[in-house]
Amino acid sequence: MEATAEQATPKAVPAPRARPAWAVVALQELRDLWLYGRGLPLALGFSALLSVVTYLAASNQSLNFLEVHEAVNLALQVGVAVGAIITLLTAADAISGERERGTLESLLLTPAPRRDLVVGKLLAALSVWLVLFVITIPYLWFLGRNVGAVADALGAGATVGTLVALSLASLGIIISALTSTNRLSLSISLFVLLALFAPTQFPTGAQSGWFGDFLLRVNPISAALHWMGKVVVDGHSWGHDADWLISPISAGVVLTAIAVLAAPRWMRLRGGSPG
């Protein structure tokens, strides 16, 4: 029996859908960071730091209810601050490091749009914050499991930590795109970090005046840590001090927009101000 024309004609097999260029870049950056780079040693060092902080916070067996909440907040602030710092330094190496190692030219010659290159590198840098926050979770549970502080700590930490990490990662990408050497990029990033964390070390008296309050509110890091402390230690609802989140949210939106929209134009073989 003769086969019909429909049976004889092979069915067309749809071509596999290609991954977006930013996803390809992000996967490659993730492999370089976590399989062959410094991601795993940084995670181990971070875990050792949190172990010391948690041991010191939990070593006093006579802690009362409020002090336990403060111990949870201390561990959470260390986790958020150190995680955000490492995220910034990872992003600060993203472009200037390629330029210094002589691999930026081959990267720019790939068919991927420069914006996708930036997005991929930004996502890889944010993976540092995600991994370090996951490492923080068991320490928070150990400290706050008996006082019901774990849920608030995890929610508040994930919220403000992601905002701060996104802001600093985007800032690192911007600095890395503008600077000619990796050393200069890291130096500027460290200087910015010192400037941002300085208000968090003000004495209580300096923070109580209108100017001290203004500095704390306009600084995304100090504002984020302040809001987090109010939720974890004082038991405030998330909306009670929501005005403290204006600065972290604004910084995240503005810096991410600059990194994604402007930094691709600054990706040149030699760093410098945009022209």
Characterization of this structure:
The structure is a single chain. The chain has about 280 residues and is mainly α. The protein has helices at about 5-10, 20-35, 40-60, 65-90, 95-100, 105-110, 115-145, 150-180, 180-195, 205-210, 210-220, 220-230, 245-260. It has one domain (about 20-30, about 40-55, about 65-265). α2 (about 20-35) packs across α7 (about 115-145) and α8 (about 150-180) runs parallel beside α13 (about 245-260). The chain is built from 13 helices and no strands. Helix content is about 70%, strand content about 0%.
Mean pLDDT: 85
Spatial shape: globular
Helix content: over 70%
> Per DSSP, what share of the residues sits in E-state strands of 2 or more residues?
under 5%
**Number of domain units:** 1
Structural class: mainly alpha
Number of continuous helical runs: 13
| Amino-to-carboxy terminus distance | 74 Å
Given as residue ranges, the uncertain stretches (5+ residues, pLDDT < 50) are none
SSE order = HHHHHHHHHHHHH
SSE layout:
Blueprint: H1 5-8, H2 21-34, H3 39-58, H4 65-92, H5 96-101, H6 104-108, H7 114-144, H8 150-178, H9 182-197, H10 204-208, H11 210-218, H12 220-232, H13 246-261
Helix pairs in contact: 2-7, 3-4, 3-7, 4-7, 4-8, 4-9, 4-12, 7-8, 8-9, 8-12, 8-13, 11-12, 12-13
